[in-house]
Amino acid sequence: MTRSPDEQIATLQEKLRQQEARLRELEESEGRLRAFLESASQGVVAIDPAGKLLLVNAKTEQMFGYSRQELLGAPLEMLLPETLRHLHAKHRQDYFDAPRSRPMGVGMELRGRKKDGSEFPVEISLSFVRESSRQLAVALITDISARKEIETQMQQRQKLESLGVLAGGIAHDFNNLLTGIIGNASLVLGEMGPDHPLYRHVRDVIEAGQQAATLTRQLLAYAGKGQFYIREIEIAPLVREVVGMVRSSVPGSVRIAVDLLEHLPPVSADSGQLQQLFLNMILNAAEAIDGRRGTVWITARSVDSDALSASRLSANGLLPGRYLSIEVKDDGCGMDEATSLRIFDPFFTTKFTGRGLGLAAARGIVEAHHGSIEVTSAPGKGSTFTVLLPAAPPGKHRDTEPEDLSGSGVVLVVDDEEVVRRTAAAALRRYGYLVLSASDGASAIDIVRESGSRLCAVLLDLAMPGMDGAETLGHIKAIAPDVPVLLSSGFGELEAMDRLAGAELAGFLQKPYTAAQLAREVRRVCTKASQHAESGALP
Ligand SMILES: Nc1ncnc2c1ncn2[C@@H]1O[C@H](COP(=O)(O)OP(=O)(O)O)[C@@H](O)[C@H]1O
Ligand SMILES: [Mg+2]
Predict the structure, then answer these.
(1) Model's pTM, two decimal places?
(2) Neighbours of ion ligand 2 (CB under 5 A)
(3) Is the CB of 31 under 6 A from ligand 1?
(4) How far is CA 98 from the centre of its chain?
(5) Relative to the CA of 285, which ligand 1 atom is closest?
(6) Domain range for residue 61?
(7) Tens-place pLDDT, residues 348-376
(8) Is the CB of 335 under 6 A from ligand 1?
(9) Residue 10 placed within a domain
(10) What is the 298 CA–ligand 1 centroid distance (Å)?
(11) Burial call 385-417: b when 16+ CB within 10 Å, e when fewer
(12) End position of a domain, from candidates 398, 420, 445
């Protein structure tokens, strides 16, 4: 049967219509898939058996810092640390020989490499796609830096805590035992008189006992568990007293030159702890001179944080304000860089009879006083230790225990300014929190998505480029409604608060805030949230 040309055209037109409809469907479904791929919170890449990148999504670009044009067609190796590149061809071969879906490198630390050369920890799961003409391996890549960072902080915290428990336990028992030893030996010594043949030995017992007591105190100071009685203290008389104490134990060839300005502002501190701090530094300086002729200079002055570099403030987690800068300088042996990097570690010593606790304790003490300690030194050039301690606020004469602002839990700090992030993080760490930080709304949301249930609070900056605080807040609340969010903003941004009316904010911090204000707010919202969670768990 033959069809008329009109019929044939009609059939063809119908076929064409069907194909157009089919094409539209395909386009729509591809559009959906692409949208899904591009909004995925994991990096997605596909490679061929030669390791050539055939597909990447937006998250991959963001994670590795390359543009899509740079990635497509390039070898996958460029996303790997240099040390692992040569192994990948073999791994890839093995995978294409026996492909199946599986996590990659189980039990191994996998790392990615960004365009700028920095590396970061990743988790990767692999799956396999067979197309008509070729085979592809698809990898889902998760950046696990945030999780790793919490883990590291947790380990560090646990190490300090267990050391603190150990030190506390030792101190308690040792102090009792040492009181017994020193007390009884002193009684015996008193009965003996200096002419007794055993006098020298009993005196040695007492001396050794006193040294043991000093070590115990150093351990406690390192763990931040020393006795604290905070008062306003004048530095000058305290330093002179310590110098008087050490004079007798320092060889005569070592001159100690003290040059302290009068009328320095006082610091809020524990005097016993500060004595310990200066004692440790001065003894080290004298020991560095090691029997030769030399000088230890001690100077102090008052500086304003404005005069210090921002990097120095943030590296040490110092807040703006007035500081006392106390320098202990010597013209002794000095040290090389490798040594100076380790001197604050407990039990690090280069001395035959050293204990390695002096500077570890010094660091514990300055940190407990919200200050910092730094060293500059070179072999043969002497060393200079600089301690910064915050000056006591004028006019206030506190003689009381400080308010307890400590807490625990993970806090996410979101701010586009690095200095703010670092300062807030340092302050929170000091009060016992673990801290994650994000420099923009999008990465904050990623972190909340990944670790929302572990966060005890989010500190969110209102004014940020791109996604601002208000928008970020909406996303965070949608993902983790129970995590309290504290908003912070500077002056003049309060009108923006109108936009937040009705939003569930746990609190508000006006910038600039002090470490204490921050800790007080975080503690308040964290306690409230955990009480809430507990009461919610009741039947
Ligand atoms: N002023 C200094 N000059 C040179 N090296 C120093 C100085 N102070 C400290 N050090 C180095 O730091 C190390 C650790 O010091 P410290 O913690 O006080 O322990 P210790 O004095 O028992 O060795 C010392 O062993 C020494 O190598
Ligand atoms: Mg020492």
Answers:
(1) 0.51
(2) 284, 358
(3) no
(4) 42
(5) 1
(6) 40-143
(7) 899 988 888 889 889 888 988 889 999 99
(8) yes
(9) yes
(10) 17
(11) bbbbbbbbeeeeeeeeeeeebebebbbbbbbbe
(12) 398
